[in-house]
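Q: A reviewer asked whether we had any structural model of the full assembly, not just the individual parts. We don't, so I'm hoping you can provide one. Inputs are below.
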Amino acid sequence: MRSTLAAAVLAAFALVPTALAPTAASAAVNVVTTTEGLASLVREVGGDRVKVQPLARGVADPHFVDANPMLAVKLRSADLLVDVGLDLEVGWLPPLVTQSRNAEIQPGGRRRLTAAGAVALLDAPTGPVDRSRGDVHPGGNPHFLTDPGRAVQVAAAIAERLAALDPAGKATYEARLADFRSRALAAVAGWRARLAPLKGRKILTHHRTLSYFLEWTGLASAGELEPKPGIPPPPAHLAELVEVARREGVKAIVVENYYDRRSATAVAQGAGATVVQIPGDVGGEAGAKDYLAYLGLVVDRIEGALR
Amino acid sequence: MRRFAAAATAAALCFLPAGSGAQQDPSAPPAAPTGASPTARLLLLPDLAAVGSFALAWNDWDVEALSPRAGPYAPTPEEPAFLFEEVELAIQAVVDPYARADVFVALTPEGAEVEEAFLTTLGLPAGLQVKAGKIRSPFGRQNPLHPHSWDFVDAPLAVGRLLAPDALSGTGLSVGWLAPLPWYAEVVVAGQSAAVEEDGEDALLGVARLVQYFSLGDATTLGVGFSGGLRDEGTGLHRDLFGADVYLRIRPPAGRAYLALTGEAIGRRFRGTGSGDAEWGGYAQAFWRARPRWGLGARWDTAPTSDEGSAQPGRENRWAALAGWFPSEYQRLRLQISYDRLPGGEEGVSALLGLEFSIGAHGAHPF
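A: Here is a predicted structure for the entire assembly that you could use as a starting point for your response.
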C-alpha cells in the first residue's frame, strides 16, 4: 500500500516542471470570465495586455453549466475572475472557486469582479420571494448584457479593475474603453434608427432574457413561454399564449438557441407568428464573434421578424 | 479612477432608454443602484437548505435477512412499505476571508447525526487546501457523495460491505494538493478517527487519493481516481483498503443532456490474521439525463455477502434499472427496479420509488 501511494505522489511531482513552463512565458493579465459575453468585453478593454478564458461556452445555457473540475484549473491561476452575479452561476461557480484555492477570486476579493455591481438592475422581485415563483433571481434579472449601455458600464468596471491590477496598462485600458464606447454608440445609433418605427411592438420570449433589450429598444414583452422562470411550458399555458399573441399582435417569438424550440413553434403556428432563434451570448453562433456582432445579430433577427 | 467613473456615467447617459418605460411591468420596483445581494446574505445568515428523502419500497424477498444494507427496502417481503429515509440539513457559509464551513446534519428515524461538519481553507499557498472536522473520507467516487447527489436511489452494496455501513467517515483532517498541471490532478491525504461498524469504536484511519480529470474534446471529460486506506485495528491487526474509479461524462455544451458512466472497484484486506485474502466489490453504472426533466440509468454492482445476514458466504450480484423524473431542479421522483442474485441460487426483485425534495439555498449540481 505504502509503496503504491509513494509512487503516485512521485509521479505527480515528476510532471510538475513540464506544466509550469508555458505559464511562466506570458506576462499578460490572466482573466477568467464565466461567460463569453464578459470575455468579449474584457478583450475589448484589455487587448493584448490580457489573456481571456471564458468558463461557459456561448452555445450553453449559463444557468446550467457543469461544475467540471477542469474549470477549477483555469481559475487556479486567474489574475481576475469576472462573473455576472445575481445567482446566474450559483449552480456551478461557487464550488469551482473553492476548489481553485485562489483566495483573491473569492466573492469580494481583490481579483473578483461581479459585473452586476456595475449596472442598474431590472426585474428584482418584490414581496416575499420563494420558489413558488419559479427559479427566480432574488437580486434582479442577470441578463443585462443585452443592453449595450450596461455592457459599456461593465466594460468601464473591467477597465478600472484591470488598471488597479496592472497599473502600467492604465492608459491602454482607458483608450480601448473609449474606443469601444464610441463603436458601441455608433452601432446603437444605427440600431435605434432601424427599430424606431417598431417602437411598442410586442414579442414573446422563452425565458425573461430580454428585459434590458426591450428597455433600450422600446420594444415590449407580451410574456414568456415559461409560465414561471425555469418551469417548462405546459400545453395550457401555450394555448393561453396563442390567444395573447393574437390579441397583442405578436409577430416574433424569440428563443435563445440553447432552448428547445418546440414550444415556440407551437405558439407561432397557432398565432401566425415567427420563431426567431438568436444566439444566447457571444459565441452562441458563428457570426457572434464579439459583443457588438452578437448584439447586431439579435437586432437583425428581431427586426427582420417584426417588419 | 475618477476618469473611469466619469466615462461610465457618460456612457450611461448616452444610452438612456428609448422607451418611456411603458414596456416595463408597472409593479416592478425601481431599478436597484447596484447588483444587490439577496437579503439572506445582507443579514450574514449562512445558506440554509433541507433535503427530504422518502421511499415506497417493495421486495419479493427478505432483504433484511439475506442482504443487510443501509439502503431502503421493505422490512416484510411482498408487503409494500413507506419509508422515511432522512432529512438532511445543510448550513453553509464563509467563515472569514480565510475559510468556509459546511455543516450537514442528517435527521433519520434513528435520530440526528452530524454527517459532516468541516472547515475548508480558501487560500493556502502552493495549491494546498485543508479540510478539518468531521468529513466523509476522500476514498473513491461514491463514498464522499451525500445521498441526494446519487443518481440511484440507493448506494452500491460494495460501499456498505467493504468500507462502512453508511459511508467511511470520521473526525480529522484532510490535506489536498492541486498539482500545477494543465489538467486537474489532486492528491488528498487524510487522517481521521473513524468507526467502520454500526456503533463500533473509533480507530485511526489514513486515506490517500489521487484524482485526475482530463478533457477529451469539447464534450467529454474523463476522471480517474486511485484511493488507498489503512486502519489500525489494534493488537497488530491492520485493515487495508484499495480503490480505483473511472468516470466519463459526455455532455455537448449546447444542450443539457448528458451521459455519465462510472465504474469503481473497492478492495479490502486484513493484515495480521491467518487469512490475508483480499475481498473486493464494485459497480458499473450509466446514467443518461436525456432531457432536463427525464433521466434513465442502469447499474450492475457486486459485493461479498454480508457476515450479518443469513446468506451463504460468497458473492452477491445486483442489476438495477432506474427512471427518474425531475419536475424542477428541486424535486426528483425516481423508480428503481433491481434484481439480486446470491450464492446458493437465492434471488430477489426489489422496487423502490424514491421522492426527494430540496428547499432553501440552491446548492451546486455535483459533477
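A: Points you may want to mention in the reply: The first helix of chain A runs from residue 2 to 14. Chain A has eleven helices and eight strands.
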